Amino acid sequence: MKFSLKTALAATIALSLSACASTSVTESLEEVTTSNFRSEQAQARDQYRHPVETLAFFGITPEMTVVEISPGGGWYTDILAPLLKGKGTLYAAHFPADSDVKYYQRSLAGFKEKMANTGAYADIRLTEFSAGTHHNIAPAGSADMVLTFRNLHNWYMNGDEQAVKDAMRAFYTALKPGGVLGVVDHRLPETRDAAKAKRSGYVKESWVIALAKEAGFELAAKSEINANPKDFADHPKGVWTLPPSLALGDEDRAKYEAIGESDRMTLKFIKPQ
Predict the structure, then answer these.
(1) Arch. (CATH architecture) of 2-270
(2) Burial class (CB in 10 A: 0-12, 13-18, 19+), 119
(3) Where are the domains of the chain?
């Protein structure tokens, strides 16, 4: 009887500590996301991208070693960098320096400028990533978490399924056993023809899960944090028809603004112990 009471007490304490830790991290995330460090334009998209809820779902803590894949202009980096600064480590796996793609060059140059002139970015470790060629995103087995936001569809469109498989293997290599891969991407309905929708920017959730499992990951959880039931994922210019791109300009602008940003899957994978 004493043993069972001790066990129950230990379990209660563990749950209480876990809840306190979760609350603390959420508070830290809310503090970062609402700070003056982030622009009003960036914060306006929080209603669609739900950064606090998404990062909390993935289980991030300020002490982690985190790899952000293809951070672009730094929308999520503006949250991750101050959150991890002084406690954890952030790798930014940006576009390769040897790329001849002008957009990649401009994006990387802008990010490097932020690293040089923005205090929160000072400790970021810059690495290179390209789904088909550059995979050394962090030392093998060093990362607690790898995060990729709205990238898989680009690798699939610009290459093929093999490019996504190569990316998944790179993530797996960088993570510690027990490490987390967090994936957010535009979601294609399972009943839709994936081949016909390849250029749409949407991919099937089942396809992403299958490729992650093929790389060795286990699916830990799914969330509807970033779901948008108004998005039927069939638009004249693909996902870019919707905000923030609004690729049709003023044509049916009110209609697409009413839909909002895309319906997105939010998947948490684990590298097995």
Answers:
(1) 3-Layer(aba) Sandwich (3.40)
(2) exposed
(3) 2-270
